[in-house]
């Protein structure tokens, strides 16, 4: 298959940090079409050599750098061309089309690595320039609005020009290796399915903890907050994959239909429920990894008086047959003690213990699906300690269900490698459909509006801690604990 990739915003942060390093790895492993061209489109006056130097600088800082080889790098660079062009101008795009994209048999992938405010004029320019063909695909990434309403506005702009199946909405969490493995574990084995329901599962916890702060983008972050930045997309997508019914096949429509059903079962929260089941926090100055860090309000570019949440913890339910009564606890935050992401499925205690004091309370079986920093899936089981002591307590053992690193397979691909390759291959299974995004916003909007109506006030937590104590109380009230990182 022949395909060309247009990266609009080709000199920007996302492109330099994530896209080129991922493309290099794909190129090196021979997975991209041999005649593929990458057109980096941006307005800046920049020579091809200076542009490639920037690509190289960011590549050297990326994980892909370990795969560097001079010959591959040279052939990779020969496929990329920097095109100085205003992507919102129809004439500009038409001349680009004439020079580079005249063969309508070749697929075109347009990656909009730009703010959504200019999606509409770019799409119009692509259309007028004749670049919106049946074999054109467009890739967009969050933020896709800050509410259902604003999402629909952005989406209408895209879908007034592209068909829904041409639009690839990236949620990079869906490209992570362990997330793929979760699907294999759930749907390629028989032993889990009979247990994967409210009869055997006590609760599910999803944590995405970050130790970084707002990374120099205070203004952007302040308008979003952790709920819009992380929960609306990454955490809810993880919840979908953990909770969805088995799709009939591993294909885009089947998988996305099942995820949509999960989102539509999220219990909407009224005022009382928001008060009781959500906690928001904001970090104050502290220390992370032994280094002093400023509070959110003292970060570069910060404006005084912000109550934007840098932490959210909440409890929710899925109102369907499988999950009735099972709480899903979600939490995410910045400047926490550790960086880790995991889904923890906690099973119920045995119905009747025959071991008395030998089986300590509070030792349920757990499945831990860790996405970061290491990618592992493990199962905690109770086991007998070998020996003749009749009263020795049973002991927890952890079964590692992760496929060992195989040097023949090479390093695990990162999310952008997988997702970029899927767009090139025209496989949208791991991309989010508009109705999913809309459903997620509906649920989030409901919570946001209660927070705002009540005069949002974020609990303060010290940077480098585990978040506000109210988040611990949220789950402790139910007689449970957050699964802590170790
Ligand atoms: C992004 C958020 O979508 O995900 C960032 O905008 C966050 O605020 C990032 O830091 C986390 O991604 P990852 O893959 O590093 O966990």
Core attributes:
single chain; 486 residues; alpha/beta; Rossmann fold; Dihydrodipicolinate Reductase, domain 2; 2 domains; nine-stranded mixed beta sheet; six-stranded parallel beta sheet; 13 helices; binds 6-O-phosphono-beta-D-glucopyranose
- Strand proportion, as a percent range, falls in 15-25%
How do the SSEs run, as a string of H and E?
A: EHEHHEHEHEHEHEHHHEEEEEEEEEHHEH
Q: What are the low-pLDDT stretches, counting only 5+ consecutive residues below 50?
A: none
How many domain regions?
2
Name of the CATH superfamily of the largest domain: Dihydrodipicolinate Reductase, domain 2
Sheet/helix structural class: alpha/beta
Main beta-sheet annotation: 9 strands, mixed
| C-alpha end-to-end distance | 46 Å
What is the CATH fold-level name of the largest domain?
Dihydrodipicolinate Reductase, domain 2
**E-strand count:** 17
- Based on CA inertia axes, which overall geometry fits? globular
User: What is the CATH domain class of the largest domain?
Assistant: Alpha Beta
The CATH architecture of the largest domain is 2-Layer Sandwich
Computed Rg: 24 Å
What does the model show?
Strand 1, helix 1 and strand 2 form a beta-alpha-beta unit. This protein is 34% helix and 21% strand. Strands 16-15-14-13-7-12-11-8-17 form a 9-stranded mixed beta sheet, sandwiched between helices. Strands 3-2-1-4-5-6 form a 6-stranded parallel beta sheet. It has 13 helices and 17 strands. The model has no long low-confidence stretch (mean pLDDT 95). With 486 residues, the protein is of the alpha/beta class. Helix 6 packs antiparallel against helix 12, helix 8 crosses helix 9 and helix 8 packs across helix 12. It has 2 domains: 139 residues, NAD(P)-binding Rossmann-like Domain (Rossmann fold), CATH 3.40.50.720; 281 residues, Dihydrodipicolinate Reductase, domain 2 (2-Layer Sandwich). The protein binds 6-O-phosphono-beta-D-glucopyranose. The site of 6-O-phosphono-beta-D-glucopyranose has 5 residues, from loops.
């Amino acid at each position: 298959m022949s395909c060309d990739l247009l990266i609009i915003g080709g000199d920007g942060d996302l492109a330099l940090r994530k896209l080129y390093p991922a493309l290099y790895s794909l190129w090196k492993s021979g997975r991209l079409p041999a005649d593929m061209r990458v057109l980096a489109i941006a307005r800046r006056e920049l020579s091809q050599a200076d542009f490639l130097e920037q690509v190289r600088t960011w590549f050297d800082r990326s994980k892909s750098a370990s795969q560097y080889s001079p010959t591959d790098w040279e052939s990779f660079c020969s496929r990329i061309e920097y095109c100085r062009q205003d992507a919102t101008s129809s004439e500009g795009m038409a001349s680009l089309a004439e020079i580079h994209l005249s063969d309508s048999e070749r697929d075109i992938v347009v990656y909009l690595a730009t703010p959504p405010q200019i999606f509409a004029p770019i799409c119009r320019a692509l259309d007028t320039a004749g670049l919106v063909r049946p074999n054109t695909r467009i890739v967009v990434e969050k933020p896709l609005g800050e509410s259902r309403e604003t999402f629909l506005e952005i989406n209408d702009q895209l879908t007034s020009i592209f068909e829904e199946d041409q639009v690839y909405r990236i949620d990079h969490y869906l490209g992570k290796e362990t997330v793929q493995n979760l699907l294999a574990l759930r749907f390629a084995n028989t032993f889990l399915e009979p247990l994967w329901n409210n009869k055997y599962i006590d609760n599910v916890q999803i944590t995405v903890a970050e130790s970084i702060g707002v990374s120099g983008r205070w203004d952007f972050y302040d308008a979003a907050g952790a709920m819009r930045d992380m929960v609306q997309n990454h955490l809810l997508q993880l919840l979908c994959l953990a909770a969805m019914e088995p799709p009939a096949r591993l294909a885009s429509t089947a998988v996305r239909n099942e995820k949509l059903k999960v989102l539509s079962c999220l219990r909407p929260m009224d005022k009382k429920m928001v008060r009781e089941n959500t906690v928001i926090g904001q970090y104050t100055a502290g220390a992370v990894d032994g280094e002093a860090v400023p509070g959110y309000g003292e970060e570069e570019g910060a404006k005084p008086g912000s109550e934007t949440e840098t932490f959210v913890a909440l409890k929710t339910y899925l109102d369907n047959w499988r999950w009735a009564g099972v709480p899903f606890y979600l939490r995410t935050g910045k400047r926490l003690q550790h960086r880790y992401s995991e889904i923890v499925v906690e099973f119920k205690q045995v119905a009747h213990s025959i071991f008395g004091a030998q089986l300590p309370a509070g030792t349920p079986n757990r499945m831990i699906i860790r996405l970061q920093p290491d990618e592992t899936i493990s199962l905690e089981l109770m086991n007998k300690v070998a020996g003749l002591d009749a009263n020795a307590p049973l002991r927890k053992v952890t079964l590692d269900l992760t496929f060992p690193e195989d040097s023949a397979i090479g390093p695990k691909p990162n999310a952008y490698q997988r997702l970029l390759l899927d767009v090139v291959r025209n496989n949208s299974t791991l991309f989010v459909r508009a109705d999913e995004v809309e459903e997620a916003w509906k649920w989030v909007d409901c919570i946001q509006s209660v927070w705002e109506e009540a005069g949002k006030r974020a609990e303060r937590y010290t940077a480098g801690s585990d978040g506000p104590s109210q988040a611990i109380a949220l789950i402790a009230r139910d007689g449970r604990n957050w699964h802590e990182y170790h």
